[in-house]
C-alpha cells in the first residue's frame, strides 16, 4: 500500500507491454543489503552474450555498493547499464540516475497545513538517514511558515535506517499522545504511515494528516491531501526509451513542474483549499528550483 506498489506497477506495465518482444525480466526483493549486493555482483560478472542488459536499483541504499564497484572497475561490461533511483550521484559514477524532488509538493502541503489547523504540525520522519527525504521536510516547513504561521514545527524520527518505514504499530500507539499536541501530521514514513491512518479511522476527530508517495485520501477522512510520486510512469518512460534506443537520461531531477510528482488534495477538501494551493503553485515551483540549485 505504498511506494513499492507503484514501483511494481511500473515494471509490470513494462512486462505486459513487452511480452511479445523477448524481453527477459527478473524482480528481486532482497532480505538484506548483503543479499542485494550478491545479486548485483552476479549480474555484473555474468556474460550477457551481446544482448543489452539493464540493472535497475530502486533504492539509494545501494549507492555505496555502486561506488565501490566503480572504484575497482572503470566501466561496466559492454552492453550493460545501471539505473539508480533517488540519487544525485554526487561522485559522478557512470550510471543513469534520477531524483524526484518533493520540496515543491511538500511546500504546498505546508501551505495547506497552515490553513486547516491552528495547532502546531508534526513531521513524522521514517528514516533520519534517508537524505532523499530532507527536501520534503524543508519544503513543508517553508510552505507552512510562508502563511505567517508562527507555530513551531516538530520533526520526529522513527528510526535511523530502513526499519523506520515498517513501524505502523509503533506509530499507532504514539498517535494517542501526538493527537493531544498537534493539529496536522505530515508523515514521510512509508508503511509506518498506515498506523497513523488506522488510528484516525478509529478516532476521526484527531489531527489532519497527509499521504506521501501515494494518494492516501481513501485511507482516512482526515487525509487532506497527498504528495504523490508517479514513479510508475517514470519507470515506464525510462525503460521504454532504453528498449527503443539503448539510452536513458543520465542525471535528472524531477520536481513539481514535471509530470512525476504533485500535491493532490483529497476530494472532500478541494473546495476549501484548491484556490490557495493554485495561488501558491508557481511560487512552490520557483522555491523548489532555488532549493535544488542551492543543494
Please, could you describe this protein's structure?
Helix 7 links the parallel strand 6 (184-188) and strand 7. The strands form two sheets. A six-stranded mixed β-sheet has the order 5-4-6-7-8-10, with helices on both faces. The chain contains nine helices and ten strands. Helix 4 crosses helix 9. The chain is 43% helix and 19% strand. The chain is elongated, with a radius of gyration of 20 Å. The protein is an alpha/beta fold and 295 residues long.
Question: What's the topology here?
Answer:
Blueprint: H1 3-17, H2 33-45, E1 53-57, H3 63-72, E2 80-84, E3 96-100, H4 103-116, E4 121-127, H5 134-145, E5 154-159, H6 168-181, E6 184-188, H7 193-202, E7 208-213, E8 223-229, H8 231-245, E9 251-254, E10 261-265, H9 270-294
Parallel strand pairs: 1-2, 2-3, 3-9, 4-5, 4-6, 6-7, 7-8
Antiparallel strand pairs: 8-10
Helix pairs in contact: 1-8, 4-5, 4-9, 6-7
